[in-house]
Amino acid sequence: MAFFKTFNSVIQYFSEAVARIFGPTDDSYPNIGVQPFDGEPLSEWIEAR
Predict the structure, then answer these.
(1) What is the pLDDT of residue 41?
(2) CA-to-CA dists, residue 34 to 10, 28, 41, angstroms
(3) Would you give the DSSP letter of residue 23?
(4) Between the CA of residue 20 and those of 15, 16, 29, 34, 48, what are the distances in Å?
(5) What pLDDT is recorded for position 9?
(6) Dihedral Cα 20, 21, 27, 32, nearest 10 deg
(7) How distant is the alpha carbon of residue 44 from its chain centre?
(8) From CA 22, how far away is CA 26, in angstroms rounded?
(9) CA pair distance 34, 15, nearest whole angstrom
């Protein structure tokens, strides 16, 4: 009986993960669009040693 209970919980765990991966997104990011870069570009080349 414990085997079936464990097996059921493992199947439920993976099915919830698959549903979350392939389900609709629930991101709540604001729709602000692309923001331009306002910083200063690097004025000189820095070589890695």
Answers:
(1) 73
(2) 42, 16, 18
(3) S
(4) 9, 6, 18, 27, 42
(5) 96
(6) -160
(7) 36
(8) 12
(9) 36
pLDDT for 45: 72
Question: Given the structure tokens 């820095």, which residue do they identify?
Answer: 46
Report the alpha-carbon distance of residue 44 to residue 18 in Å, rounded: 48
Residue with tokens 């004025």: 43
Strands (E), 1-49: none
Amino acid at 20: R
For the chain, 49 residues long, give each residue's pLDDT as a single digit of tens.
899 999 999 999 999 999 999 998 877 777 787 777 777 777 677 777 6
